[in-house]
Design goal:
- The complex is a heterodimer of chains A (388) and B (303).
- Chain A contains nine helices and 20 strands.
- Chain A has 388 residues and is an alpha+beta fold.
- Chain A folds into two domains: 171 residues, P-loop containing nucleotide triphosphate hydrolases (Rossmann fold, 3-Layer(aba) Sandwich); 130 residues, OB fold (Dihydrolipoamide Acetyltransferase, E2P), CATH 2.40.50.
- Chain B has a two-stranded antiparallel ribbon.
- Chain B has a single domain, classed as MetI-like (MetI-like fold), CATH 1.10.3720.
- Classes of the chains: A alpha+beta (388), B mainly alpha (303).
- At the A-B interface, strand 6 of A face helix 11 and helix 12 of B.
Chain lengths: 388, 303
């Protein structure tokens, strides 16, 4: 992946699947699912390629779990079709689908030990007794549960239970593995370790993973692509980096990560540069977005870590007249978070701005105190212009 | 945290209440029964000897103790009537318990699958018959089952049978009465375990390629084992000692132990032998209770 801003703003080949060959492993085609008057999934379409690690991200109630349950077969779409390898699976009951799911609370069988939990679905998969033993041993080794085969689920730790659930879901060699909030029950340290293991496992087995999560860090760190859902619709489907750096809408920008959202009006449209009068901020410059914004009422979005602070005003040539964005204000609040600090600035024009600075030195030489006068500056490239 | 710090002093004192109850209303009376079972029957008031009488002093008490014997228990073993009664009681209780499981399980399962707001209604429907006297309900069954009763009338009207069938005073009538009367005791513990069963487990089974029917045998049944055991115990124990239902609905050719006990106690006025019957009965009933305790302890150890 290249690092230039060009890639982020202009090229989009990695997001949209245009090719006819190879056909996607999974094609979700204008699928709708209603519960009474509530529309859980609303005319949603999505292609997922074989070998992909895809994350469905969204707030609770956005329909992501319903979508996952339709892929597993626990829900049937009211409209639209779901095709796996080109075959419509909408009418195929869950126990006949080459799809396995890792359940949110693992749903391990409490009366069976680790070995029997993992081997539960293998008898019906047509394996012999010896074949089952072999497959279970293989899975136990894969998820590093050696020596625990005889334990019951309630004799395992949370992390071990998670591994059993994963091994059980993988044991039938599914074409598609669905993971419903797989790490939500783990504590933070264990979650980060497990994320890395899941990614390694997915790459090693060459499997296709679809994961549902409300935790954006989880989606960002693991997925090849993320689909952000709201009210039963996909708001944006993109790589984690594009999602963060080039959000498609104001909602996505505010949902993913922290961002300063400045409402403003376009005053001047140059070839590539917009001059925007920001409410409470003053005049700002931004680069014209790939898809030109219609109308003059826009939002200018800037991530807190893209802003730098300075005690002195900017040097001539780097300042406003030189095309750099700079605004003056005083520090009103500092939040220390260890690796970085969040500064809240009260701008001279009346608005507020959040700035995140990395705490690069142990001694607080870089930090700014409350009530200190500062200049905040950021490049036009770092601004995202979105329709209001 | 120890119980001492968890509960206040009055609460701790209250904890002995069940033990006081047990001693006063179970152990003490049972002691009397054991004592009478070791006595000999006489035509007197009370109808047994020896009687512990403190007026006789220490020597009198010693003589009374010396007069106790195990003769009644030997008599129980010697006469096949008693052994046959015990055997019939156990067979009837076992058969009834199996029937109750077969009938009760689908009902409890259906209740647990109802929408939550209907589950309370279903529970009421199971319990409501209890608001009518047990005896009245058994008499109602006698009425239905008798020669010109409702059942025969319906069967004749539908031309299922050409002549009235003898229902009353048969084992079928007795089993019908027992299953009808004890069904709630089977349904409620079963329902309690089935309602707690996580439906997600059945989804997991389906996801792993197991059909609904197989998932029932591989997941639901093993996980409702405790409810089945509790329900079976709750039915089996009282059915072993059941007196009214076999007396009113079954024939008089074979007796359950409750009937034999009644006969010895009231008709033959043989209190000591009746007491011996009761002591052995309690001993028999302890067996399933101990098994249940073992099973439960083993499950706790697994945690």
């Amino acid at each position: 992946m290249t690092n230039s801003a060009d890639t982020i703003d202009k090229a989009a080949a990695e997001d949209t699947v245009v090719v006819a060959y190879p056909a996607p492993l999974l094609r979700i085609d204008t699928v709708t699912r209603r519960f009474g008057a509530h529309i859980a999934v609303d005319g949603l379409s999505l292609d997922i390629q074989a070998g992909e690690f895809f994350a469905l991200l969204g707030p609770s109630g956005c329909g992501k779990t319903t979508l996952l349950r339709m892929l597993a077969g626990f829900e049937t779409p009211d409209e639209g079709r779901i095709a796996l390898n080109g075959e419509d699976i909408a009418a195929v009951p869950p126990h006949r689908r080459p799809v396995n799911m890792m359940f949110q609370n693992y749903a391990l069988f409490p009366h069976l030990n680790v070995r029997d939990n993992i081997g539960f679905g293998l008898k019906t998969a047509g394996l012999t007794r010896a074949g089952i033993d072999e497959r279970v041993a293989e899975m136990v080794a894969l998820v590093k549960l050696d020596g625990l085969e005889k334990r019951k689920p309630d004799q395992l730790s949370g992390g071990q239970r998670q591994r059993v659930a994963l091994a059980r879901a993988l044991a039938r060699h599914p074409q598609l593995l669905l993971l419903d909030e797989p790490l939500a029950a783990l504590d933070k340290k264990l979650r980060e370790e497990t994320q890395a293991e899941l990614m390694a496992l997915q790459r090693q087995l060459g499997l296709t993973f679809v994961i549902v999560t409300h935790d954006q860090d989880e989606a960002m760190s693991m997925a090849d692509r993320i689909g952000v859902m709201k009210d039963g619709r996909l708001q944006q489907v993109a790589t984690p980096r594009r999602l963060y750096e080039a959000p498609a809408s104001r909602w996505v920008a505010e949902f993913v990560g922290d961002i300063n959202m400045i409402e403003g009006d376009i005053r001047v449209r140059d070839a590539h540069r917009l001059t925007i009068e920001g409410r409470g901020v003053g005049t700002l410059f931004a680069v014209e977005p790939r898809e030109a914004v219609s109308g003059d009422e826009v939002c200018l979005a800037i991530r807190p870590e893209k802003i730098r602070l300075s005690r002195r005003g900017l040097a001539p040539g780097l300042n406003h007249s030189g095309g750099m964005n700079s605004v003056e204000g005083v520090v009103s609040d500092v939040g220390y978070l260890g690796g970085r600090s969040i500064y809240r600035l009260k701008l001279d024009y009346g608005g507020m701005l959040r700035v995140a600075l990395a705490n690069t030195a142990r001694l607080d030489v870089d930090s700014y105190g409350i009530d200190e006068r500062v200049t905040a500056w950021f490049t036009p490239d770092d601004c995202v212009v979105l329709p209001r | 945290m120890s119980a001492k710090s968890l509960f206040s002093a009055p609460a701790r004192r209250m904890a002995i209440a069940p033990y006081v109850w047990m001693v006063l209303f179970f152990l003490l009376p049972f002691g009397f029964v054991v004592k009478i079972s070791l006595s000999q029957t006489v035509l007197a008031q009370p109808p047994y000897l020896p009687v512990f009488d403190l007026s006789g002093g220490m020597a009198g008490l010693r003589d009374a103790f010396a007069a106790l014997s195990l003769d009644n228990f030997r008599a129980l073993l010697a006469d096949h009537l008693y052994v046959a009664s015990y055997l019939r009681s156990v067979v009837v209780a076992f058969t009834s318990t199996v029937l109750l499981l077969v009938v009760g399980y689908p009902i409890a399962y259906g209740m647990a699958r109802l929408p939550r707001r209907w589950q309370g209604v279903a529970m009421m429907l199971v319990i409501v018959p209890f608001w009518t006297s047990f005896l009245i309900r058994i008499y109602a069954w006698m009425n239905i089952l008798q020669h010109d009763g409702l059942l025969n009338q319906v069967l004749l009207a539908l031309h299922v049978v050409s002549a009235p069938v003898v229902w009353l005073s048969t084992d079928s009538a007795m089993y019908l009465g027992i299953v009808y009367s004890y069904l709630p005791f089977m349904i409620l513990p079963l329902y309690a375990t089935l309602a707690k069963l996580d439906p997600m487990l059945l989804e997991a089974a389906a996801d792993l390629g197991v059909s609904r029917a197989n998932a029932f045998w591989m997941v639901t049944v093993p996980l409702s084992w405790r409810g089945m055991f509790a329900g079976a115990l709750l039915c089996f124990i009282p059915i072993v000692g059941e007196f009214v239902i076999p007396d009113l609905l079954a024939g008089s050719d074979a007796m359950m132990i409750g009937q034999t006990l009644w006969l010895e106690f009231f008709t033959n006025k043989d209190w000591p032998l009746a007491s011996a019957l009761a002591v052995v009965l309690l001993g028999l009933l302890l067996v399933p209770l101990l098994v249940y305790d073992r099973v439960q302890r083993r499950q706790l150890e697994h945690r």
